[in-house]
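ugh finaly. both done.
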Amino acid sequence: MVFCKGSSTNIKNLTYLFVRNAQTSGQFVNPQKSSIYSGSIFPQRLMQISHLTGFQIGTLPFTYFGVPIFKGKAKTVYFQPIADKVKLKLSA
């Protein structure tokens, strides 16, 4: 997970970082498996960033390593799957 502002310079530097990492480590970023999640950004700018990086545009909320990622106040529905797993483990 990488956080940055959506400026042209930052997106170019981020893309360059991905390329350099791939050259050094042999681990490539797969654009088909990568997503962009944004805060307050114009939809046109978000589409430009998507085209520059090749990443799809994701929507909140989503789950990252089993933890819900959301914007704003926490809702019970975001954490219900975790609570269900804990209850299942405790009952066993």
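ok and the 2nd:
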Amino acid sequence: MVIPKCKDKLLKYDKIQDIPDYWIKEEEWRLSIYRKWRDMWERVKNDSAYNDCIICHNYIRLSNYFIDIIKLENFDLFKENPKGWSIDKDIKIPGNREYKFEALSLVTRSDNSKDMRARNKTPNPRKPIIGISINDNSIIIFDFIRQSEGKGFDPRNIVKCLKGIRKSHKGYKWYYLNIIEL
């Protein structure tokens, strides 16, 4: 793959090349758009599930991607709370394998997950989890992983513990709670 030049700099992972650094620090939603653009490139480049996906040539530049994103329906809601939103390429056009403006939509993370589960025919993954303190063996239980955010835990790190990638998170070892009915 030829790496395009953008304003005398090479386009590289984790660096903005055609938008000034100060721009990204101004507002959280701008940083979120950058991360979604960067993650799009990383998925297509490194994730085997996206081997046959392509990104339209226009999106080599972050500025072009940004211009399209602000035109999408729900952009105003996204701007208010960027963490709760996803940019999806195959809700409008099921089975779509190209990142292009005509296919993109801004959807809540919840709706995106529901759509993905429906396409993959997988059940709702909400399972109770238990954290056991490394220090005193005290326990904390949540009905589902996202619920842990309210107590200051990072759900992504808990998932890493559940998958065996991490040993602990914030002083707790994490497990799925198997509820047994007697």
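summary for the 2nd one i guess: Confidence is low (pLDDT under 50) at residues 1-16.
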